[in-house]
Design a protein that fits this description.
Layout lengths: L2 E9 L2 H13 L6 H20 L15 E6 L4 E6 L6 H9 L6 H7 L4 H11 L10 E9 L8 E6 L4 E8 L4 E8 L9 H11 L7 E4 L8 E3 L16 H11 L8 E7 L5 E7 L16 E5 L2 E7 L11 E6 L8 H4 L3 H19 L3 H21 L4 H7 L3 E2 L11 H6 L7 E6 L3 H5 L5 H5 L5 E3 L4 H7 L2 E2 L2 E5 L13 H9 L3 H10 L3 E6 L8 E4 L7 H9 L9 E5 L4 H8 L4 H17 L7 H13 L1
Parallel strand pairs: 2-8, 12-14, 16-17, 16-19, 20-22
Antiparallel strand pairs: 1-6, 2-3, 3-7, 4-5, 4-7, 5-6, 8-9, 10-11, 11-14, 12-13, 15-17, 18-19, 21-22
Length: 618
């Protein structure tokens, strides 16, 4: 029995209107998922009540049997979903049902393509939740009261999903939330006992709270539980089908697609805990959103403690979904306690190894898809997780001069297996994009000697190579830094003696370019190009400077070494050019060309054009 006091009409946040339109149109072909989404919300509300009641038993109000009840009325064309969980206050109703207070909202809408099939997957990641009601309903009525609040603090919310909703304060004797769906004419099939039972078994069998429906028969006075009502992760693995695992993933991952893979393990001994981790089949839209919350669900003795328990896994595994359930933490554990808890450290370390093992076990096609989705964040692990750096390094995939496809497939193990006799380093080149990398003049000598070079074009690669300096005893060396020591080259001491005997044109170039260059020397890198720019061994490279500047960082100016190919016609011309403005102009052109060849930007492009025109007109 409810009694109304005052009513108010409010408008949906514009993002809600946009999401409702997407939900109704993009998910129409899979409309039966509305029940899964609403039951999932009921389950979350019950878990929150159970957790809050750990510190305040009065929240139960004498009603400790936590349940989800589903009713239907064929004549009235309604389906009712009811829980006795935490419930909502008036403010929470407005926030949860009228606005989207969620990080990554801008990124989510920016990622939408307009294609219903593709967008439906993104909508799932974003969390359709309550708004799935409008896929099948012409009107939705929500009645709720926050646990612990007085009976006159109930709230009724009602909307047809077309821009507005009404909200009124009511007297409600029950805590929790009841949702009544007034079905559209083409959705009355859901006001049916067998249809609802089938959907519950199909989508929500894993929910640990009993889901009850009226017993079969004319009187419908009794109720029976439809789902298994046991925590899936605590069941014996041999008793869980692949379909069970997939259904649970869609609940815990808020996704419509099946996962790419999963790993389920139970540890007994000094510590007792169970983990179930999933690798998604699609990258979350907010994977690179700085403020987005990522992590797995944490349970203690089957009691839900928190979503997004980021302390359980490192940041580079933030795409992993799943649960951790342990008996070895207090029920009142907080995020602050988790950060300095030795039990968590042990579970975390073991979980990382389990997940990495599962990634390693993926077949070729699965791993190719995994790397395309999550390779960039896995590279962060090489930087952050020193304990697993060697294992992570074996998972890395790159494009190289042996395989120049855009989808990176070359592992460091592959590279080492192809190293030439006498080769002591793994060579790599960093660049802004693949086209620039493949055309880099720095590769000329490597191509002529048939030595493979890794082509690194992700911004994170610059940091990966500063942290990963060796692999299987081989050093990683940038072709853009320092002097080369390639198989078949002259001994280092002989090369250095020759370098000291600089030809006159080299000295003239250095004088003409002044502080634009750190030095000018004869190259060992080039076979076709006139010149290239090289950073000294420990200086910052040009690509890293570009990345830092783009991020708004101040980058100290640092000149680089100009290496010149004395056999190139342009250098041969310079040797014979008189010491006048013509030599200075040609010297600047050589330097500017070296910058452009590596994908850099000229400080004075107009001056470069003027010098080229003067050369052409001659």
């Amino acid at each position: 029995m409810t009694t109304s006091t005052k009513s108010e009409t409010l408008g949906f946040q514009s993002e809600v209107n946009q999401l409702l339109d997407l939900v109704i149109n993009s998910l129409y072909s899979n409309r039966e998922i509305f029940l899964r989404e609403l039951i999932s919300n009921c389950s979350d509300a019950i878990e929150k009540l159970r957790f809050n009641a750990l510190s305040d038993q009065d929240l139960y109000g004498g009603d400790t049997e936590l349940l989800i009840d589903i009713d239907f009325d064929e004549k009235q064309k309604t389906v009712t979903i009811r829980d006795n969980g935490i419930g909502m206050s008036r403010e929470e109703v407005i926030t949860n049902l009228g606005t989207i207070a969620k990080s990554g909202t801008k990124e989510f809408f920016g990622a939408l393509s307009g294609d219903a099939s593709s967008d439906s997957q993104l909508i799932g990641q974003f969390g359709v939740g309550f708004y799935a009601s409008f896929i099948v309903s012409e009107r939705v009525v929500v009645t709720t009261r926050r646990a612990g609040a007085p009976e006159d603090a109930g709230v009724r919310w009602e909307s047809d999903g077309k821009g507005q909703f009404t909200i009124e304060e009511i007297t409600s004797p029950r805590r929790g939330t009841e949702i009544v769906l007034h079905l559209k004419d083409d959705a009355t099939e859901y006001a049916d006992a067998w249809r609802l039972r089938g959907l519950i078994k199909k989508y929500s069998d894993h929910i640990s709270t009993p889901i009850r429906v009226p017993e079969a028969g004319d009187d419908k006075t009794g109720r029976e539980t439809v789902n298994s009502a046991t925590a899936l992760w605590l069941r014996n693995k041999q008793e869980i089908s692949d379909d069970d695992y997939k259904a649970f993933y869609k609940h815990v991952g808020h996704d419509f697609e099946d996962p790419l893979s999963w790993v389920h393990s139970r540890v007994e001994g000094k510590l007792e805990y169970t983990t179930l981790f999933y690798i998604p089949n699609r990258a979350p839209f907010d994977l690179y959103e700085r403020d987005a919350k990522h992590g797995v669900k944490l349970y203690v003795q089957r009691v839900f403690i928190m979503d997004d328990a980021e302390q359980m896994l490192p940041r580079y595994l933030r795409f992993i979904r799943g649960v951790v359930d342990t008996k070895d933490l207090p029920l009142n554990v907080s995020r602050e306690i988790l950060q300095r808890n030795k039990t968590i450290d042990t579970i975390r370390a073991a979980s990382i190894k389990k997940i990495l093992g599962q990634i390693e076990s993926l077949n070729t096609d699965e791993f190719g898809k995994f790397w395309k989705l999550f390779g960039r964040v896995m590279k962060e692990g090489v930087i952050e997780d020193h304990a697993n750096q060697e294992r992570l390094a074996k998972l890395l995939r790159f494009t190289s001069t042996v395989d120049e496809q855009e989808d990176p497939k070359v592992s460091l193990t592959d590279y080492v297996s192809r190293m030439q006799e006498g080769q002591t380093a793994i060579y790599f080149l960093t660049a802004e994009n693949l086209a620039t990398a493949k055309k880099s003049p720095h590769l000329e000598v490597f191509r002529s000697k048939n030595i493979e070079v890794l082509l690194l074009i992700d911004p994170v690669d610059e940091w990966v190579t500063t942290h990963l300096t060796t692999f299987e005893g081989k050093s990683l060396k940038s072709v853009l830094h320092g002097k080369l020591d390639l198989p078949g080259d002259k001994p280092q001491d002989e090369a250095e003696t020759e370098a000291e005997e600089k030809p006159p044109v080299v000295e003239r170039l250095k004088k003409a370019l002044g502080d634009k260059v750190k030095d000018v020397r004869v190259t060992q890198r080039l076979t076709n190009s006139a010149a290239c720019l090289v950073a000294d061994e420990y200086d910052m490279g040009a690509n890293l400077q570009r990345i830092l500047k783009a991020a708004g960082q101040e980058v100290p100016a640092s000149a680089r070494v100009l290496e010149v190919n004395l056999q190139h016609p342009l250098l041969l011309r310079l040797e014979n050019e008189p010491e006048d403005s013509g030599f200075a102009r040609l010297a600047s052109i050589v330097h500017d060309q070296a910058i452009l060849a590596e994908g850099g930007r000229l400080e004075d492009p107009a001056g470069f054009v003027e010098r080229i025109n003067a050369l052409l007109v001659g």
